[in-house]
Design brief:
Length: 281
Amino acid sequence: MPELPEVETIARSLREGAQGGVSLLGCHFTSVQVSWERSLATPSIGELEHRIIGRCIVDIGRRGKFIVFSLDRDWLVFHLRMSGDLRVEPLIGDDHLIKPLGPYDRASFTFSEGVRLVFEDTRKFGRIWLVDSVDRMMSNLGPEPLDPVLTPEIFHQRLKSRHRQIKPLLMDQSFLAGLGNIYTDEALYLARVHPLRRSDSLEFPEAELLLSAIRQVLRQGIKSNGTSIDWVYKGGSFQNTLQVYQRTGESCRRCGTLIERIVVGQRGTHFCPVCQVLDPQ
DNA sequence: CATCAACCCTGAGAGC
DNA sequence: TGCTCTCAGGGTTGAT
């Protein structure tokens, strides 16, 4: 389930060709294939083809959990949701034939440089967009948690301006861009904030601590190349650092109390009932 | 504005 | 062994 660190890791390897991979910078599109129509949010397949063939990739980055390809005209944007992934591979296999796509490959973009970019997505929740304004598309996204322009003062003000349970608020992408279930649970634990606390009940020092906890888990996640949980995302090692996520019934590493699991905003939520107290509500 | 439920999907794991 | 059932999970949408 890619969150900010996983998306950052994938975007980085597409851009820099990390771990033996190939950088896509400068590549030119020669064809597009979409095998599951609903993976393409916009435009139509015909228009996508028409607008993208011949375009060149100028940059590859991330905004929230979106992977953004800046082309010499338009932007190609991916959201991996639960099970999506992007991989780059040679178009031609060892048998000198064009490699067939796998059963979970939903779209493929080939380049004049002899490689292709494959969007695979087992659960079909991921989406692809080709847009002429990435700013308009992202206009509802909240601030980047790692961006220094988000000061503790501003963060505290934003928390104060709402009256919501803290966990669903942190996962609300229009409030803050990039946190998902795993890193939210971890950050709340690190900051000793109960997931059901009301956002406007946090005093400034708590908000400051929470923001720094969020940054700490995200930075550590990026350094670990993300979290490999279940069969969905592979390659990262942050799962070895998890303090509460999927540790229900195991001991808190700070106080030994058993980690509890509750449902908050329809999401499985893991916390230590002793370290993360609810009292001010 | 906040909360909740349904929906989109599939593989995995449990129960039988 | 193999079937059926339930569940997770991000984000959108619609109801309360």
